[in-house]
Hints:
Layout: H1 7-21, H2 24-27, E1 37-38, H3 54-69, E2 73-78, E3 81-87, H4 92-99, H5 104-116, H6 123-137, H7 146-161, E4 166-167, H8 168-176, H9 181-197, H10 210-219, E5 223-224, E6 229-233, E7 236-240, E8 245-248, E9 254-257, H11 258-261, E10 264-269, E11 273-277, H12 280-285, E12 291-295, H13 302-314, E13 319-323, H14 328-341, E14 346-347, H15 352-357, E15 363-364, H16 367-378, H17 383-392, E16 394-395, H18 399-404
Parallel strand pairs: 4-5, 11-12, 11-13, 13-14
Antiparallel strand pairs: 1-3, 2-3, 6-9, 6-12, 7-8, 7-10, 15-16
Amino acid sequence: MNPVFSRWQKALLEQLIDQYENSKTYRGENxxxxxxxxxxxxxWKEYYSDYADIHLVHDFECQMxxxxxxxxxxxxxxxxxxxxxxAVSESQDACYKILGRIERRKLEQEQxxxxxxxxxxxPMLNDFCRDQIERLREGKRAQFPMEEAEKILKLWRFLLExxxxxxxxxxxxxxxxxxxxxxxxxxxxxxxxxxxxGDFEALLYGIDEEREAEKILLGEYHVTSNPSFVYxxxxxxxxxxxxxxxxxxxxxxxxxxxxxxxQINGITILAPKVMTVENLTSFHxxxxxxxxxxxxxxxxxxxKQMLLCRIYERNQQAQWYHFGDLDPDGFFIIEHLIKGxxxxxxxxxxxxxxxxxxxxxTKPLKENDMRKARTLLQQxxxxxxxxxxxHEKKKLEQEIISWMERK
Length: 407
């Protein structure tokens, strides 16, 4: 029958093995023999306390003596108890066996094999894997524990190879076998790696909220939290790849999924102006026959930007506007649209006159708003309205404008 080791005993052995594996001795770089010791309070913090239970102190010391009797450690005593607990170098193999622990060199080699197995056709993933392999070969720890790393690598590769719209929970089941594990543990980690190793600076320009950035990044790989729709409203004709034509009416909005958008061959707009609208409530409220309206939902991924570019190619005679919240984020969205599409968007209903007109409905600027407003001023953009916002420390949501200005 195998002996049973207590929590205190295992904690001591773990710390001694950790010291050994992190030492120059383990790496074969030391010229002298090292000893690895732990003071009792590292295992049980109450050991030196004047108020410690005397029975627990006795129990602790007995457990340490058991390890000494088995030849695993040596105890150094002082007048009032144990001074330190030192590893017996010849006992290392026994300690690994007791702890069920894989030796670090073997574990590092297993990790290297794991990362080498994910080297392939994806430069971004290759860069990450090579970084981790280099760390391991230098005796450093990899960024993630092995089991976690394997899941992250599988998720990352799935995203890079995915060509069809998929929901986050479907992704979680497909790769992890659990519908909620992606959101709970892996989404943020994978998205941070995408930002670090990918080229998304322009795509994420001006976006500070991590979840908003995650949605945009995942949208690049056709992953959404819920089915993603683009809404159209206004006079236009939509031509599909199969030859069908859909005529849109002025006050009848339609919504298309990402899958359907890919089947659109072209859109001919029968109105002199085009307006993208930031919020769905305002999109539904606006009804000016001079405009063709699009609701793209906040910041826009690559697919939505490409859709706008295709529409613009056929409708360059139209004037292009964007209507969003009168806050710095609303203007960052305009900049995001311009950079992503090259279309000369202009803000509409987004000047100081509307801030003054609906002053009773304004909200106070937050510190993050003020920082973004200063950034736009430094770039020489939207000077009048940014200065007004900063001076008055006010911002306005667009829904009140679309409601009060309705025809």
